[in-house]
């Protein structure tokens, strides 16, 4: 649903003449951005979102993620010595996601 809302809002904005010079996305937003930019057709993007959602559903319960309000270096200190845990994403100077 979230992906459909993102793509739909971009279409509404386009109807009013708002055309982005560039687009960027994170997680499902990456597929929405690729679609809005013309790199993926609406059908291909929807197919990718469906396959990704199915994979996430099947993998549920096989690990965990946590968002930490610290930078990458501090997050690495926290997880040092914990096998199978690593930095999954650095979302900002004080926002790091770990997973394992």
From TrEMBL:
Q: Which residues form the Malonyl-CoA:ACP transacylase (MAT) domain?
A: 1-100
User: Which Pfam families does the entry mention?
Assistant: Acyl_transf_1 (PF00698)
> Which GO biological process categories is it annotated with?
fatty acid biosynthetic process
Q: What is this protein called?
A: Acyltransferase domain-containing protein
Q: Which UniProt key words apply to this protein?
A: Acyltransferase, Phosphopantetheine, Phosphoprotein, Transferase
Keyword Acyltransferase: yes or no? yes
Note the superkingdom of the native organism: Bacteria
Q: Which GO terms describe its molecular function?
A: fatty acid synthase activity
